[in-house]
Amino acid sequence: MEPKRPSIPMQIQAFRRRGWRSRWPWALAAVVVALLLIWLVSRSPGESTPRTSAPAGETPVAGPPWQMGNPEGRFTLTLYGDLECPFCQTYFPVLKRWVSGNADVALQWHHLPLAAHEPAASAEARLAECAGEAGGHAAFWQAVEWVYGHTRSDGQGLPEGQRYPDLTPAIEQCLVSERPDAPIRTQTAEATNSGVTATPSLRLHDRQTGKAILLQGPIEGDALLSAMDMLSATDNTAEPAHELPANTSRQ
């Protein structure tokens, strides 16, 4: 049975109109001018105009971890992925479509380049990290999608001479540095220490109950909805973490 998914509350700003009376036009003008002068004097020299805040619901730029979907949603779906994994390559567009159709889910990437796919897997992970560093969440996922769309997979890497079309000086500077290596190493170690050794693997976390389920393999949408339903029905007083044993091994 498809679980009932709560709607996403929207931030609504209320604007109140004020009717200005013409009773004291000169007094009002004087007050406005005085306030403007005070503001101009109080501004620090060289202070720039504040940037307009991002629209409500827009994914913040800071990362990693890199997310797609609703960052304020009840569920976080972590994908343990390898950019050279052929099963991940096939599954990623399917999972992306599923997430786009479930407004209460955020998809989060977790690097897990397998030894059998090196060095191509880590090289492509570095590209995605640098794209994210330079352009934020959307740029990270764009790089992931591009790699999956062009790699020969299974450790063979990109075709000879194939270059990322959106390469920028910022991405190039990042690639020659060691910055992208840290999150890749950290996330790989975290996955291994938690017993995740196959890709793709998924961890569905209910932010409201604190419960989580770990699944291996390309899980279909109906199964993910059932998992969401189960986590939603879980008693909050139960243990804060729950993982299902893997019944599928993918590489």
Automatic annotation (TrEMBL):
In Swiss-Prot or TrEMBL terms, this protein is called: Protein-disulfide isomerase
Q: What is the lineage of its organism?
A: unclassified sequences, metagenomes, organismal metagenomes
Database matches in InterPro entries? Thioredoxin-like_fold, Thioredoxin-like_sf
UniProt keyword annotation of Ribonucleoprotein present? no
Q: Which residues form the Thioredoxin-like fold domain?
A: 67-211
Gene Ontology terms, MF aspect: isomerase activity
**One Pfam family of this protein, by short name?**
Thioredoxin_4
Q: Supply the alphabetized keyword list.
A: Isomerase
Report residue spans for region: Disordered.
46-68
